[in-house]
Amino acid sequence: MKKLFCAFFFFLFLVNSSAQKSDYSILSIPDSLKQNANAVLRLDQMDILIASQRSMNIKTQRIVSVLNDKGLNDIDAFSHYDKTTSIKNIEAIVYDAFGNEIKKIKRKDFKDQSAVSGSTLFSDNRVLYLDYTPISYPFTIVYTCEVETSNTAFIPQWYFLGGYYLSVEKCVLNVTFPKDLGFKKKEFRFNGFNIKKTEETDTKLSYLATNLVAQKQEDLSPNPSDLFPKVMMGLENFHLEGVDGKATTWEAFGKWYGEKILTGTTILPEETKVKIKALVGNEKDPVKKAKIIYDYVQKKSRYVNIAVGIGGWKPMLASDVDRLGYGDCKALSNYTKALLEVVDVPSYNTILYGDRYKSDIQSDFVSMQGNHMILAVPNENNYIWLECTSQDDPFGYQGVFTDDRDVLVVKPEGGEIVRTKIYDDKGNTQDGKGTYTIDETGNFSGVLKIASRGSQYASKSRVETMQPNEKEEHYKDYWDNINNLKLGKITFTNDKENVRFTEDIQVSASNYGTLSGNKMIFVVDAFNQYTGNIKRMRNRKNPFQIQRGYLDTDEIEISLPAGYSIEFLPSNYELKGKFGEYKTEIIKKENNKLTYKRSMFLNKGKYSNKEYDEYRLFMEQVSRNDNAKIILTKN
Amino acid sequence: MKIIKLFSLSVILLIAPKAISQEFKLGKVSVAELEQKVHPKDTSAVAAVLYKKGVSRMEFDQNDGFYMMTEVETRIKIYKKEGYEWANQQVWYYNTTNLKERVFFTDANTYNLVNGKIEKTKLKSDGSFDEVISKYRGQKKITMPNVKEGSVIEFRYTIKCPNEGIIRDWDFQTSIPVNYSELKVAYPEYYVFKPVQKGYLFPKATTLKNPKSITINSKERNVGLVSGTSFSSDKIDYLETEVTYVAQDFPALKDESFVNNIDNYTASVQHELSLTHFPNSPIKEYSTDWNSVVRTIYEYDDFGPELNKTGYFEEDLKKVLTGLNGQDERIWAIFNYVKATIKWNGYTGYSCDSGVKKAYKEKTGNIADINLMLTAMLRSSGLTANPVLVSTRSNGIALFPNRNAFNYVIAAIETPDGYILLDATDKYSIPNVLPFRTLNWLGRLIRKDGSSQEIDLMPKKTSNDFVFMNYDINAEGKVTGKARRQCTDYNAMIARENFEKLKEEEYLEKLENNNGKIEVSEYSRTNEKELLSPTLETYSFTGNDLCEIIGGKIYVSPMLFFSQDKNPFKQESREYPVDFGYPFMDKYNITIKIPEGFAVETLPTAVAYSMENNLGSFKFNIAANGDVLQLMIVNQINEAIINTEQYEMLKEYYKGMVAKETEKIVLKRI
Asked: How many angstroms separate the CA of residue A472 from the nearest CA in chain B?
């Protein structure tokens, strides 16, 4: 949603070198590479030539044998361009299964499109891409491309294995660079893959990888970028959209960013300053001041991303944001910073990867990284983090988009790597309290109050802004264990001060209790069933992650129908293990009433492939017990 | 009592005149509009179109002749943050060598109420953008400044289109409420435009005839005894047709599941040039009724003539048809030949893109390239084959004749037993089982002589999904059994698509994990590629989690993982028809062997019921015979489309089915 360095972040540049006479026949692919593969990369070669601080040439050659239509995505024949990046040439040739040429696709036959994503209003970045309709499988595409750019801030990260279900026969990376620019690199996870460094001098770096077999995708795995081998590269002296830069240490990089990119962007009109001072009034406490300003920005602004030239990296002027009332993450963070300056509250631009999946700025590799910006307000020995693109987030709340990860805080004295707020598993709570009644015909009616905090606040509070039909859909999905659900009155209390979202809901449903003969059967746990399905897998290979833990507690009073007596009550249940703790309890009370108590605590963590089955069994136990039924008999 | 009544009356009187006074003119934003906190008729609305007025008028320029000028002004109220996206606006335009439109945004302002006063912020050049979308289209975008909750924004745009025959489509409805929407369309008497309206709500239309004139100045150079220039001026009088559509208080459109295409239900009007008649010239028809629409399309270079080309395939086709005599054999051979030879490039359209010859040579083409080629081949083999124009589901349904109503073409063969419909662009399509995208009410068949006829595209034949299952339950509640599933027609098509999507290993993993974590063995598939035969899957399974043991008794849903345990129709009320796509029958034959030492305590009772008008019927039969239970369950839906009046009935039908299919058999120890 909110991308900072949107233009260059994701894609690999792919380019060509001298065309070689090769055997493109499918027959020559070894069987081991066809196993689990939708496509085989016969050759994946990139030649990067950095001629100077302001000139980089990238040649890509990519020979892909596509085995079936699921392998079409692995062709990856596209190249971005804009004012500072030009495509010198781009071409693709298609060969049939026997290696006979069947089609040549020239530059003019590539599709040309604006490279804006959904959240970007306008960008000058464009993309040329190949749109080929295969006439039969398998086939082979030889794609070559050469790109020249003056931006040397981003040397493509090199992934030897570009994705799942893709095998690689041969993968070559050659980088040539001048001695004096401070070229550096970092290698990740080469272990277990057939990768060789073939050359490393003060002006050259080369790798060769051969026969990397296709990997299967598995649930709960880390992102491929944290799983597969890769090389990060960078220059200590680089160039970005007309500005020379330096990245020797985080201090130096932060200083450069502050001086060359941010300087002069926080000037505000006098009128606004007066207004802001009046707004803050006599408040002395910096945190309270920041709260007032944050609220002001939330009410005044909206998220609009316009990325042209340096605008992809440099924030819009604060005075423009002030006048227009919109901006992207950089602009809004910077504007908030400017307003805070007016009332003498220091704050720092903070660069990070914004994503549900926690992803760190690589702290031991100084370079341009990240895709998002937030603001750090110092508070004693800590920071309060402000997400300035949101008009709804409580002050300092980080939800699930920027929490628990390494980020770069840009201070005047230089950059600093800091971990953002970690939401404790036991603080991510959902607390349900309510009652339900079953009548003689099995009809159900109940009221429930659900309070959500921590990272659960993020997923729940969005319900408040839903349209009525979306709300209905949400609750009918949430309680899809209750058939024929009818929603009554729903009210919300969004306590932003304490970051707690409360739902008060009335529901009813016919035939919740199933009647058969003189028995009635129904599931005790009506309101909070674990409905996930942890797949059974033969031979799991990858480790798995639980990114965020949680604690759910429920206490529900159940009124049983008159004229029935209890034939069977599920017994109390407790399950403890490394993944968490689960407990349910049913207490018989007077007047045909029961109290049902449930608590479920899940630990976050990184676990090995060996532990996966144990986790599955744990969750299956939970699921089974959540489905425990009461049986009543008619008197 | 009386006092209270009087009081309430006066309250009403006080409130009534407060209904917001509005002036539908740019710049005349009222304080009341800015003060309004929620939409009076839809309190959940995030924004609303307060008014939108457009004029498309054909104007004359001495150099360029007639052209179409469209001017639209809009006022939008933003109530909530979720409505901020309405502050970003865009208008696309044609940008080809033959057709260059020009678009301008002007008078764009944001209005806010600041301390009781109206504050106006003008849109400057830093908030407007011009984007190249493709070789054919560009787009002007604006993003309004200073937008907050409560803001009112206004803007005007003009589109100058050199082609006088194009009037932009106009939607009177959108995802937010529209308080007032007006479109005026005006053109000289020499032109006739056909309006095409759709939706569930219709604007009021009025027509006026305005006297108008154009003046053509000409100068002529006389060369003779006295050379000089003489000027002349011709004034031509004509009548202008002016149609005004007014829509008031149209509610927001909400999307629903099982809806074919929400655009079909949007109140909107399109205009299509149907004829021109200039003084001293013959009438030129573009389209007036379906027949002439179709004839016009037929005469397009990239349609009719493409059908008549045969030379490029004749040799090859001869080989394909060698030794084949039966009609069905020949159809099947040609159909498969086209499918195998030419691949669809993903583009729709009833006009050829590359042209049949080129498509044939390159082995790839658009919908028309492929299906017109198919038609031509069928014809050349002696069959009565014709193209059928279709509008895909995503293109919506055309209620009135116009050329844009179609975006797709298929082939039809006339036989004594009716039409056989064919689409060679889909891998799993077979005769009379068309791809889902084409199942959109009616198509239009065109014969060689240009005459045409309506073709019902909706499938009439029931697609079956039959399951045969037998299983044993042991004393621990473990289930061991065999299942056999057979699908025909559309269900077979879907099954084949699912087979293709996943490698067999993953398919099985999914089959296991989505069905109560059973373990599957001895899995086999038959007729995966034999498209004319039903798909068949057989497998053995075991499941430890399919029965529950409660208080020493075994509880089991007899259909196990095949039971429909959720009602797919959860909405309280329904705005638009439910579209299943095709009639279907799900049928289950189940044999259960209960464990030794156990006896049946309760069995679900048998039921049978049906919906009115034979829309559908449900049967649930169960019989016990010693330690063996026999079940037969049938769910049959006879209509592809169920309209909104029948929604409640459909929902109840499914409710009953879910209740029955989730009922348990209880087994007790003897």
From this structure: 8
The token pair that represents A530 in the structure block: 């674990």
Asked whether residue B624 falls in the same domain as residue B585, the answer is yes
pLDDT at residue A385, rounded to an integer: 97
Give yes or no: residues B432 and B305 share one domain: yes
**3-class SS of residue B431:** coil
Q: What is the pLDDT of residue A403?
A: 95
Asked if B131 reaches chain A (Cβ–Cβ under 8 Å), the answer is yes
Which A residues in the span 4-43 are in contact with B, Cβ-Cβ below 8 Å?
36
CATH 2.60.120.1130 fits A426-634, yes or no: yes
Q: Are residues B32 and B143 in the same domain?
A: yes
Residue ranges in chain A modelled with pLDDT below 50: 1-21
Binding-face residues of B in 537-566 toward A, CB within 8 A = 545, 548, 550-551, 555, 565-566
Helix (H, G, I), strand (E, B) or coil at B267: coil
Residue B6 lies in a domain: no
pLDDT tens by residue, A115-137 = 776 667 788 888 999 988 888 88
Residue A91, token pair as written in the block? 């071409």
Pairing of strands B479-487, B535-543: antiparallel
CATH architecture of A26-235: Sandwich (2.60)
d(CA B58, CA B92): 20
Contact A135 B551 (CB under 8 A): no
Q: Are B289 and B210 in contact (CB under 8 A)?
A: no
Q: How far apart are CA A605 and CA A622, in angstroms?
A: 19
* Number of structural domains found in chain B: 3
Could you give the ipTM of this predicted complex? 0.82
User: Which of B88, B503, B658 lies nearest to residue A121, judging by beta carbons?
Assistant: B88
Look at residue B7 and tell me if it is in a domain. no
pLDDT along chain B (670 residues), means of 10: 39 40 83 95 94 95 90 97 93 91 96 94 92 86 94 97 92 94 95 86 92 81 63 85 95 74 81 87 80 84 90 93 91 95 89 89 92 95 94 78 84 94 95 92 88 90 96 95 96 93 87 90 94 96 91 92 90 84 96 95 94 95 94 95 91 94 92
H/E run at residue A453: strand A444-453
- Residue ending a domain, among B456, B489, B505, is B456
The shortest CB-CB distance from A484 to any of B88, B362, B655 is to: B655
Which chain B residues touch A119 with a CB distance below 8 Å?
A: none
Give the closest-approach CA distance of B101 to chain A in angstroms.
Answer: 20
Q: What is the pLDDT of residue B194?
A: 85
- Please tell me whether the peptide bond between A315 and the residue prior to it is cis, using omega within 30 degrees of 0: no
Judge: A133–B344 Cβ closer than 8 Å, yes or no.
Answer: yes
- Those residues whose C-beta lies under 8 Å from the C-beta of residue B380, and which sit 6 or more positions away, are B310, B313, B314, B317
Cα distance between residue B650 and residue B578, in whole Å: 9
CATH of domain A247-419: 3.10.620.30
Q: How far is Cα A602 from Cα A267, in angstroms, rounded to an integer?
A: 47
Task: Decide if A536 and B517 are in contact by the 8 Å CB cutoff.
Answer: yes
Would residue B484 count as lying in a domain?
Answer: yes
**Helix residue spans in A441-598 (DSSP H):** 455-461, 468-478
What integer pLDDT is reported at residue B3 of this predicted model? 40
For A134, nearest residue in chain B (alpha carbons)? B343
- Predicted pLDDT at B226: 59
Comparing alpha-carbon positions, the chain A residue that sits nearest to B360 is A135
Q: Within an 8 Å CB–CB cutoff, is residue B145 touching chain A?
A: yes
Q: Name which of B41, B92, B507, B513 to mutate to probe chain A: the one with the most chain A Cβ atoms within 10 A of its Cβ.
A: B513
Give the separation between CA B320 and CA B301, rounded to whole angstroms. Answer: 29
Residues B420 and B469 in one domain: no
- A residues 397-436 closer than 8 Å to B (CB): none
Alpha carbon B46 to its chain centroid, in Å, reads: 25
